[in-house]
Amino acid sequence: MSGVYLGEDRKDFGNKVAIKVALPANEEKRKAFEREARTLRALNHPSFPKIIDFFNQGQRQYLIMEFIPGTDLDRVRTRRRAVHPLEVIGWVEQVLDVLETLHALEPPIIHRDIKPANLRLTPNGEVNVLDLGLAKGAASQQRSSKPSKSFQAYTRDYAPPEQIDGSGTDCRSDIYSLAATAYHLLANVKPPNAMKRATSIAIGEADPLLLCCEHNREVPVDIAEILHKAMSLNPKLRPQTAAEMRAALRDVRLRTR
Length: 257
Hints:
Elements: E1 2-9, E2 15-22, H1 27-42, E3 51-57, E4 60-66, E5 71-72, H2 73-79, H3 85-103, E6 119-121, E7 127-129, H4 161-164, H5 171-187, H6 194-202, H7 221-230, H8 242-256
Helix pairs in contact: 3-5, 3-8, 5-7, 7-8
């Protein structure tokens, strides 16, 4: 159980801060909260909030962060304001730039919970990435180059099959989740979850994942096909790096203008 509150830092001229408070139900969630604090503290990227303090008080845990103004992309979607598909792809490219930075660390940091609610659009049009509670990699001092074993926590609508079945996540898992996020933002329909898709294919039915341009005709077919590939159930069929996917989307965006 956790929540985020707006506060002010009285030691720093009353500047606004975000206060994340957790009352962990078990040891795994307590460690996940601490891992988020360590990961954010170790990062130096403008798309992540800076850590001001982290402490425990009784059974509660507190993470004091830089306050980032704006609206998460899930609320942007539900408000249904007119957003051109290429603007959405511009947001996706920004997130891919962040993932490229995380994945280039040694060992790489895998976010593992990319979804609209964890992406905040600031008033100046920049996208910030939030909530690293499920992240694995450098901050947890994982030294193996093999895919990491997944925690039993994920957001099912955006999680790749390897995260749901616990077989292990890697950089391509974040690519799947971001593609599922972009699909939802563009189509205004959640994509069928990975296990539903796998089950349909296993019993000889068609993959229920449609191209997102079939839900929204304003989405260029080339973009829909890139996202479809990035949501392949087999990680080997997805773009292998964030840089690869970003280059493909940018090429289409520049040609479509």
